[in-house]
């Protein structure tokens, strides 16, 4: 369980002399890209609610938002803190692990994806968790490579880092001049595999702002995870998917492929990868009725209601 990195959220209290708002705890799994992205996007809509961490549980916060961490949700409920539990990805918790019934469960699920398995009792889909800022820099440059190794077997992660990832980064530096790699876990393995590129930036997702990095990047390569798809969809930006790693990524990539013809980043020598079309990509193919970007606002509204009128 971990508090959101302050760099990824607005200030904890409003500017000016107004009375501070209620205290709420925000927590996510720092080793899971979807989880940290989701928490940051919801936090951007919390207004004057004051954010607190696990070291400040006395007095208890009036409410909490927990992304994916079932143990954290259970602990807070035991302390009497009402919890909005957000499942950020299609396989955010191990099989059989579900949040307690007393939590308000929300599920990040774009409406354009094929129907999921029956949701847990009381769980509500949110729609896409989009970044609050949807604009991009006019002077975009370089490559952003957003990667998730969460729940990827070690042998598979090592083979990718020492093979395909190394080749992609070398091509990105050659074609776009710079490259930033953001990963959720396995940073030591990634840095070791890419040590031959001293000018490369390798950042930990929980300590970076991937949404801001994307706004400034010309090329976007990402693991097939919901947070990355939401980022490109909200900004109508080109996206090439990295080879899926692990069961959850492969399942999601297959589902996305049924709806959207997103290009794959499996060939570093493909010139189209490094000069994506100026058009918005395939997002125009989505049914407007299912192209809902208000998921973060909905979750934030639920947390605010819980904080201002606890159950």
Instruction: Tell me the Rg in angstroms.
Output: 19 Å
Low-pLDDT segments, ≥5 res: 3-18
Number of helices: 9
**Arithmetic mean of pLDDT:** 88
Proportion of residues in helical segments: 25-40%
Hey, roughly how much beta strand do the residues contain?
15-25%
Element-level helix/strand string:
EEHEEHEEEEHEHEHEHEHHH
Largest sheet: 7 strands, mixed
Report the structural category: alpha/beta
- How many strand elements? 12
Shape: globular
Summary, kept brief:
By secondary structure, this protein is an alpha/beta fold. 31% of the residues lie in helices and 15% in strands.
Q: Overview of this structure, please?
A:
Helix content is 31%, strand content 15%. It has 311 residues and is of the alpha/beta class.
Quick tags:
alpha/beta, seven-stranded mixed β-sheet, five-stranded parallel β-sheet, 12 strands
Could you outline the blueprint of secondary structure elements for this entry?
Layout: E1 2-3, E2 23-28, H1 33-43, E3 50-52, E4 63-67, H2 70-78, E5 83-87, E6 104-107, E7 124-125, E8 143-147, H3 154-176, E9 179-183, H4 187-193, E10 201-204, H5 210-216, E11 219-222, H6 226-235, E12 240-241, H7 246-257, H8 271-274, H9 295-308
Parallel strand pairs: 2-3, 2-4, 4-5, 5-6, 6-7, 8-9, 8-11, 9-10, 11-12
Antiparallel strand pairs: 1-2
Helix pairs in contact: 1-9
């Amino acid at each position: 369980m971990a508090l959101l990195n302050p760099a990824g959220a607005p200030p904890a209290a409003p500017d000016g002399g107004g009375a501070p708002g209620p205290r709420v705890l925000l927590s996510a799994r720092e080793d899971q890209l979807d989880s940290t992205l989701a928490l940051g996007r919801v936090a951007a809509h919390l207004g004057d609610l004051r954010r607190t961490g696990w070291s400040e549980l006395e007095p208890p916060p009036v409410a909490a938002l927990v992304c994916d961490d079932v143990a954290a949700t259970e602990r807070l409920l035991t302390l009497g803190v009402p919890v909005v539990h957000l499942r950020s990805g299609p396989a955010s918790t191990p099989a059989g692990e579900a949040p307690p019934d007393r939590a308000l469960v929300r599920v990040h699920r774009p409406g354009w994806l094929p129907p999921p398995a029956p949701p847990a009792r009381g769980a509500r889909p949110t729609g896409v968790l989009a970044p609050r800022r949807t604009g991009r820099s006019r002077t975009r440059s370089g490559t952003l490579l957003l990667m998730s190794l969460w729940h990827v077997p070690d042998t598979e992660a090592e083979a990718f880092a020492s093979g395909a990832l190394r080749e992609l980064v070398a091509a990105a530096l050659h074609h776009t001049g710079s490259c930033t790699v953001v990963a959720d876990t396995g940073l030591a393995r990634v840095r070791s595999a890419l040590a031959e590129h001293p000018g490369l930036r390798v950042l930990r997702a929980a300590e970076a702002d991937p949404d801001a990095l994307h706004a400034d990047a010309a090329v976007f390569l990402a693991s097939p995870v919901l947070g990355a798809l939401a980022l490109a969809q909200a900004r109508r930006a080109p996206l090439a998917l990295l080879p899926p790693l692990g069961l959850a990524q492969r399942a999601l990539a297959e589902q996305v492929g049924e709806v959207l013809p997103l290009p794959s980043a499996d060939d570093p020598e493909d010139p189209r990868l490094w000069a994506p079309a100026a058009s918005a990509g395939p997002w125009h193919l989505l049914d407007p009725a299912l192209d809902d970007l208000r998921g973060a606002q909905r979750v934030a509204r639920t947390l605010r209601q819980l904080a201002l009128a606890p159950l």
